[in-house]
Each structure stands twice: as structure tokens, then as C-alpha cells.
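Notes to self after the Tuesday call (sharing in case useful).
The group wants a holo model before anyone commits to mutagenesis around the pocket. I volunteered. Ligand is magnesium ion. Logging inputs and output together so the record is complete.
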Amino acid sequence: MEKQTIEQLEGTASQVRRDCLRMVHAVQSGHPGASLGCTEFFVALYFNQLNHDPNFKMEGKGEDLFFLSNGHISPVWYSVLSRSGYFSPEEMNTFRKLNSRLQGHPATEEGLPGIRIASGSLGQGMSVAIGAAQAKKIDGDDSTVFVLMGDGEQEEGQVWEAAMYAAHWKVDNLIATIDLNRQQIDGPTAEIMDLIDLRAKYESFGWEVIDTLQGNDMKSVVEGLEKAKSLSRKGKPVMNLLHTEMGFGVDFMVGTHKWHGIAPNDEQLADALGQLPETIGDF
Amino acid sequence: MEKTLDLKFNYTEKKDTRSGFGDGFLEAGRRNPNVVGLCADLIGSLKMGAFQKEFPERFFQTGIAEANMMGIAAGMTINGKIPFTGTFANFSTGRVYDQIRQSIAYSGKNVKICASHAGLTLGEDGATHQILEDVGMMKMLPHMTVINPCDYNQTKAATIAIAEYDGPVYLRFGRPSWPIFTDPAQKFEIGKAWKMIEGTDVTIFATGHLVWEAVVAEAILRSEGISAEVINIHTIKPLDEEAILDSVAKTGCAVSAEEHQYNGGLGDSVAQTLARNNPAPMEYVGVNDSFGESGTPTQLLDKYGLDAANIVAAAKKVLARK
Ligand SMILES: Cc1ncc(C[n+]2csc(CCOP(=O)(O)OP(=O)(O)O)c2C)c(N)n1
Ligand SMILES: [Mg+2]
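Result:
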């Protein structure tokens, strides 16, 4: 697939945000907040950064792999997967409905192309990504493995077991990203369980850490991923702290945990879509 | 369908059982200052907010860290606190099984593990969250009491009752709005099955949300000339074996109904009781060795064979085997 320019990526992002909102609205359930907040990241990854083949093969030999650990933001992943050719955008109409491949949380059970592991129960994805990265090393496969986690998700102990392991085993073909939106279900992370300083935590665990300070600016996100790649393969796993705003792109959703897992009603959807140009065509 | 049936129990209001838990938890907190609460970033979903507001000094947000929550709860019991932990049923059991096994069950600690969004009826979130194995896991643990109430009122009563009982308890409830058909003033007796409807041809043993489906099924069966007894097994462990054996001695056959896998659920407990004492034909209504999926609660109960129509079919099938 050809790499999109920053301008093209921004256009794609607008469509992806529309897709997320329309999917969640249609079933009145799902998680728009961090889907919108992570849109630049997903679009940059799938349309500019990943070496990947939409003609999906589970093994992904010779391809970069992506794992979503915070599986509740499935809408944004389903949108970029379909928009980059893994399955028809029309299938987004089935999101969270009976007999769909687009489960509430990503799953392999129904065989949706692009998904390699189920997620939804938080804290498990990075371990899987590390295993996949090590398997590539065993095979001499020089591709990179990416994983995204939530910041609230960092409260799970398994994340730190994985962090320790990745540094110990020098899993330097791994680029992990944390969606640092400073929100979780019950409120701001600082009030729920203070993460204090994730950079210091990961550094002390033996990771190379970078900050992408403008996680909702396409150019910054692409540059952040480029930088992360340039730091990989130097003996340490790489952590990309992606500073985002939950609900970015829709004025009444931005910056609050209130839209973590709530669907917009008809009026709110119309208002939101009015803020996001239809660039590729709605499904 | 319900409208045209002559139901033995009726409802005017629907509410989620998790709200019964939230209201019961607040009441338990008012009655006993030793009751404390812990929650892993799901205070709203578990309806624990009212307790938190009234007793902030007795309530602890743990963040998304269920294993830690179980350990903290176990520690709090040591000087006599009565901790209620709150998260989804999956994260209350499978996620933290060894923590519960070692620090709570084996150590005999007075922790109340309160689990919402159990079963298929959580709906659209799908299989990652729809645990159908929790009753099996929890009932296998020595010392553990396992309770799955059927509606808002029974859940509230059960929540108050477990605060007064000394020992580890797994309390399972759910997300959907569900008929309220039991008495708001009921006294909840742990381990005592409740014969809701008398019958002579077949006994339906139901638990949780499917008690309502059993009530509907009884009316359908009656309209076709079949007399079903409905027994509400809100406590799966310890099991009221006497109630089970007495009923089946009369009816001669049984159907179990639950929002759980066949393997390890209420059905297996009933079957074991019958096999050891009075073997009788039995059919299971439950999920048969598969994961769930996204959908509405009604669609899922239909697709996976858990609604009243399926209980009716199971009753007819087991009658033919008598
Ligand atoms: C093990 C586990 N515990 C609890 C939940 C329920 N849950 C889903 S999302 C979420 C909050 C996650 O916070 P964060 O990672 O910051 O994601 P964000 O809210 O920013 O999307 C919680 C507690 C879960 N999915 N898995
Ligand atoms: Mg967050």
C-alpha cells in the first residue's frame, strides 16, 4: 500500500472519526472517547507506518504486527482495518450486533481479518506482543511489533511483569504506545490511581522512552513513530508516550471521561458529524 | 407472549439486579460500620457510588487492579472489616482466581466478592466480558458460598444477608433491566431454596435471570396441560439438596436453567445430587460449551437457547424420558 501524505492522513482521520461515531451510535453502545483520541495514531500506523498486508494472514511473517491491548476502542481499529482493505467498510454496519465479526471487543473467534488475539480484559496485550516480537527474532524476521495500551490500563500488574520481561530479554523490535489521555472510566487517572510519572517508571524498568506531546496532531504522531522506530533495535524495548485528548475532534466530547463508553444520541451525532468532513464516503 | 399468559408472578417494574446490589450495599453499610467497599474503576457500573458518597472513609478505589483488590480485601478482614469487592464477574473470578483461592477461600477470609455483568445478558460488550464459567470456578473452592439472585429485590436482600454471614461469598448479578417479581420485604436465607410454584409433572430449578424465564415457562406449560414446579435456587452453594430431592421425588424429572455453561453450573450441582441419591431424567438449559458474542440480551438468550421457550422445550423433552 502507498504511504499517505500528512494531508491525506488528516483526511482519512476525519472519515475514521465519522465511522467510529456512526458505529457506536447505531447500536447505542461502545467506546467513542479514546477511539477519537487515538485516531491520529491508528491512521498514521495503518496508512503510513506499518508494513502490512490487508490480505490477512494470521502468521504475518515478514510483516509488522499491531496488537490492541485496550480492546474497548475497537471502533477505531475496525474503521482503519476496513478502510485499509482488510474487509468491506459496509461490514461496519454490523458492529456489536448479533452474528457479527465486529464484536464489542476484538476477537479471533469469528475470524475478522486483522485481529490476531482477543482483547477487552485489560492488561494482557503487551505480553502477547512481546511473545510475537520474540517469535520474529527467533525466525530472523526483521519486522517490528507494535502494541497500544491505555493509561488506566497501566494499573494492571501484568503490564509491569511484561515491562520487566521485555527489557530483560532485550525485546528491541517492540514499540509500545500508551494512550496518555489521563482519563479512565471513573474519572481522571490522577484521582482514580495516580500513575505519577510513567516515563520514570518505564525508564527504571530498562526501556527507551519517548514522548509524543501532540498525539492529536498528525505530523507529530508520524514523527513520534519514526523516532520510536529509529530507537528500536538498540537493545531496549521502546515506549512511546502518546499525549492525547479523549474525544478529540468533537467539541462536546473532548477531554472528559464522560464519553469513555457512552454513545451519542441522534442530535449529538448530527452535531458531531457536522464537525468532521466526510472525506472518503460513509459506510 | 408474556402478556397473554396467566403468570403466577407478575411485575410492574423492571430494574437491573446490580442496582439491587448497590442499594443493599448502602443498607449493609448503614447497619454495620465494619462493612467496607473496594472497586476497580467500575463504581458507576457496580452502583457503588451511593455507599462511596455516604461512607467515603470506608470506600477504596483500587484502580484497574483486580488481583491487588482481592489481596487488600483479604487483609482488611484480619481486624474484622467486612470488605465488599466490586467489578465485573469476569474480573471478579477468572482474572483473580488464585488470589481468591489462596488469600480468601483457603485462608477463610470474610470477603464478599460482588460481581456484576455476569452471563450473556451483559449484551453488546461480547464474549470477553460475558463470563459463563464463574459459578463453576467459585463453587469448586472449599469454604466459598455462591449466590445468584433473580431480580432487584432478591439481590438487595441477598446483599444485606451476606454482610451478616461470616465467610467468603461470591454474589453474582447482572446488567440488564429485568422484571421485579419478588417481595421487597423478603427475608433472604442463604442456602434455602425457594419453591415459587408448586407442580407435579416436572421440576424446573432456576437461578439468576432465568428464574423469570422459568416463571414464564411454567405458565406456557400449564396452558398446555403440564404442571411444572419452579424452584428458585438462589444459593448454588451450599445447595439445598433436601429441596431438590423432595421435589424430584414427587415430579420424577428435572430441568435446570441458568445463564452459565452446562459444565460446572447449577445443572451439574443438581445432577450430582440426583445421581447420588435418586437418579432421574434431567435436561440442562444453559450454554453448551461455547463462548458468547455481542447482541442484545433478548437475542442472545434466544440464540444460545436460554429463554422461556427453551425451558418449555427442555421440560417436554425430559417428560418424554420419564
Ligand atoms: C481487567 C479489566 N478490568 C476492568 C475493565 C473495565 N474497563 C474497561 S475500559 C476501563 C478503563 C480503562 O482506562 P484506560 O486504559 O485509560 O482507557 P480509556 O478510558 O482512556 O479508554 C475499564 C476499567 C476491563 N475491561 N478489564
Ligand atoms: Mg485513559
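Two things stood out.
Strands of chain A lie at 65-68, 145-150, 174-180, 183-184, 187-188, 208-212, 238-243.
The domain at 6-273 of chain A is CATH 3.40.50.970 (Rossmann fold).
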